[in-house]
Amino acid sequence: MNNDTTLEKVGTDRLRPGDVLVDDRPRLVIDRPIDTISLPTGTVFRTCARIDNWSELVDDARANDADGIVNSAAQFITRRTGHDDEHRWTIQGNAMATWWRETTPTTLPR
To answer: Residues 6 or more apart from 84 whose CB is under 8 A from it?
Structure first.
């Protein structure tokens, strides 16, 4: 995230390929289509985003291990996604689920 970047809170229904999300520790790049599932209770949106800051998360997880921390966010994420070369995290939810999306002055408003 650069100095011109800000965050906006958006519902899962407003996410699009190309969006970059900040979710606690991982920085997630939506680089795949977003699937929709219609249920009697409403529509669910889902995709599997690329973790953009994988190396940073691995370094943080190792530092946490060395410090005796046993379940940090970085450790949790790297233990569940680090088994292949595709470091991804699932994004899913309905219109009420929200995410922090990076924006720049040229991308506002959406």
So the answer is: none
Q: pTM of the full predicted structure?
A: 0.80
Does the structure show a pLDDT above 90 at 25? no
Are the C-beta atoms of 27 and 41 separated by less than 8 Å?
no
Per residue in 54-81, pLDDT (tens digit) is 899 889 889 988 998 877 888 888 887 7
What is the C-alpha separation between 5 and 101, in angstroms, rounded?
A: 10
Please choose, from the candidates 64, 84, 83, the residue with its C-alpha nearest in 3D space to the C-alpha of residue 74.
Answer: 64
Residues 14 and 109: beta-carbon distance below 8 Å: no
Q: How far is CA 38 from CA 20, 26, 92, 94, in A?
A: 25, 28, 13, 10
Helices (H), the chain: 54-66, 73-81
CB atoms within 10 A of CB 51: 22
What's the helix, strand, coil split of the chain in %, to 5?
25, 35, 40
pLDDT of residue 84: 64
